[in-house]
Predict the 3D structure of the following.
Amino acid sequence: MRDLAAALNDMAARLDDKLRTLMLRRNEQEAILISLREGVVAVDHREHILFMNNAATKLLGVDGERVVGRMLTEVIRASELQRFVTGMMQRADAVRETEVRAGSLGDRTLQVTGTDLRDTQGRRIGLLIVLNDVTRIRRLETVRREFVANVSHELKTPVTSIQGYVETLREGAADDPKTRRAFLDRLARNADRLNAIIEDLLALSRLEQENPVCGSSGRRSSRGRWRKRRSQAVALAWRRSTSPRS
């Protein structure tokens, strides 16, 4: 009997150690998911929320304390995201990506990546959705496109003017000293304008190539300086490209 009791106690102790280890690993994994900057949402095959980390609740504008166990459609009002999840449920895609408008005011652009959620036996039990906020990136891309389109137009204006003055001078206007002087002044102004636009574009190119992060201690201040310099360069280039034509 003593041997049996000792064996049972030993088995219970080992089982307790395994349970503690499993709980510790689970807590560590959950802590990692909670601390991620990316939003993470897990739903079961009926689209009930299994898990949602802090980043996801902020991106989607929901109360993180009341989401687990509820239907995704009850919690999230982003119709594009709901359609994405429903489509993933109906298809056996390994990974899918899209961009949706979300947030409490629909003012965020989220890059959404969805993949199957499987148990230890490999059976599909739901979906894992990862959210990245790309709102700022998309806004910057829009500003860049508008800026490039505007600069392209502004480059054509002085070039056209220069071509016109040159043709006029070739046709005989150069024989009149007064006219020649006026045209040369205008050519110089347009050349200066072209040079200013090109210098702004080169400055922007240099800023784009710079690394905004240089060391962990100065990461935040370095990014701030980079963004400030870039904003100043964009603002300067924009003002010059939209200045009155000569």
Remarks:
- The first helix runs from residue 2 to 35.
- The longest strand covers residues 108-118.
- Residues 80 and 209 are 35 Å apart (CA to CA).
- Confidence is low (pLDDT under 50) at residues 211-220, 231-246.
